[in-house]
Design goal:
The chain has 188 residues and is mainly α. Helix content is 74%, strand content 0%. It contains 12 helices and no strands. α4 packs parallel to α6.
Length: 188
């Protein structure tokens, strides 16, 4: 993807989604600081896009900067109930603070129905439950994310610190074996 993104950047360096794509590449490689720089650039180019703060907050949590994530969430997100991605972000922040009731209160039936159908949002939800220590629920959402196509084996199996609480579970190992197989098939 890097050559494609490099070409796109040469053509249109002001395209916010390009910087999100580059942030996602860096994130999957475990390069969270360069990913933060890219997502901040995307947010500067399109400040109204709710997905950019979600990604920035996720990256802040992955780098161990929970207090920065809390500050950003409280300063930039629209009120609860205003946008599904903002509520997803608030749930992630609440989970990172150990606020089970707060996170679960945001993950309404309506919101989870929306999140379930998307590979990335299902993945974010897996992170929420992993941070809460709810392994069964986290694995259910992570399995859904991989079924929907998120099969970046190195990132899921080793690089994302928000999934650390799952890595001691045999079911996580079995799921990662399946992910590794699909990852290998895509690499052919």
């Amino acid at each position: 993807a890097r050559p494609v993104f490099s070409r796109l950047e040469a053509i249109d360096p002001l395209f916010d989604y390009l910087h999100f794509g580059l942030a996602f590449l860096e994130q999957c490689e475990g390069r969270f600081e360069p990913a933060l720089e890219r997502i901040r650039r995307a947010r500067a180019l399109e400040p109204g896009m709710v997905a950019w703060p979600l990604t920035e907050i996720q990256l802040l949590l992955q780098t161990g900067r929970g207090s920065d994530a809390v500050r950003l969430a409280s300063s930039i997100l629209p009120p609860a109930g205003h946008h599904p991605l903002a509520d997803m972000t608030r749930a992630l922040v609440a989970a990172s603070q150990g606020d089970r009731a707060g996170a679960r209160g945001l993950l309404t039936e309506d919101l989870t129905a929306r999140l379930w159908t998307d590979l990335q949002y299902a993945y974010f939800t897996a992170q929420v439950y992993a941070l809460l220590g709810e392994v069964d629920e986290a694995l259910k959402w992570l399995e859904q994310s991989t079924r929907r196509g998120f099969v970046h084996f190195p990132y899921l199996s080793q690089r994302d610190p928000l999934l650390d609480g799952l890595r001691r579970d045999e079911r996580f190992d079995r799921l990662m074996a399946q992910v590794r197989q699909r990852w290998s098939e895509l690499a052919r």
